[in-house]
Known about the structure:
Layout: E1 15-18, H1 25-35, E2 38-41, H2 46-52, H3 63-75, H4 77-82, H5 92-98, H6 104-118, E3 123-127, E4 147-152, H7 155-164, H8 174-195, E5 200-204, H9 205-210, H10 212-223, H11 229-239, H12 252-255, H13 258-275, H14 291-308, H15 311-342
Parallel strand pairs: 1-3, 1-4, 2-3, 4-5
Helix pairs in contact: 3-5, 3-15, 7-8, 8-13, 10-11
Amino acid sequence: MSDTTRPAGREPVPLLIMGSPRSGTTFLSQMVNRFLDHHVSRDNGTLLRFHRLLGRYEPLGNDGNLRRLIHDLYCDHFFTTRIRQRGMSLSEPQLFDRVRTRTYAGLIEAIFQANAEQHGKRHWGYKRASLGRAQGAHIDDLFPTARFVHIIRDARDVVLSMRNTPKVLLERSWHFAAADWVSHVEAGRRLGRDLGNDRYLEVRYEQFMAEPVRTLTTIFEFVGAGDDGAERVARIGNELGRLIKRDTVEKWRRTMPPHALKTVERQAGALMQELGYPVVNVDVIRQPVSIPELAWLHADRIARNLLTRSIPMMVRYRFELLKARRRSSAAEADRKSQFSSAS
């Protein structure tokens, strides 16, 4: 679905960036924040998680329900550290007053638009690697007017980066990291088929590194260039090239062991071929995994997670999820109590 001939001059709309972990979503977000009139926020998946709890707060047209939802968001550790401490300085009443459409999408827009304005930008964006795998909702329940950019990177470089990135909750084994890449890429492309070319743009990390100005300009035109588009395009052309580190492409050729290369291509090779990436070990693609081998792979996965993941981070994350669920249950009980009293 890649298209490098998007029309310029359209009215800017929200921008959502997705892709597998370690595929370049963060770097792309940084370049958007630097050159476009969008500010891309990140939130550790908090707003997607709260959407799964939304039934405990609805209908949001009721002032009390919306206020309870906003209050519980402000009590959430990750909303505080990823959104409020990174620029969104509104109080709870101020955020309530900014929600123009009494829907969850309207609340998301109010949050990210306020964050964008705090950073001196007129338009908002959102970056979430696993956005294509969002469960329990149609994407328009969350982002009805946004356009989506899906950045895809060679599975071998993604897996290598996942394995070498410390203190982050990522897959570490060659096999399961490759499976994670397949899951993210397939989910993102399915979402793209549902959205259509007007709202979905697929770009390759390798293309971005090789032709950074052309790629970012294409993204710029895709989400809407606005009145100052020509000036921003000129700045992209003048400054972007020196920010690119081209040695991040095909690192696997220099550093990935042969046995790891076979493992990754066995799991991800079919999709890599579909995307046009050359596969070295074609004979191993889709080879079945025996039960003893799968047992060893799971044992290796557990060992690597225990040795390389931040255990306090994992415990804190689970603890915060539990607290958020308890708050939402209390909000639901309060809502039902008020409904019973009113009736």
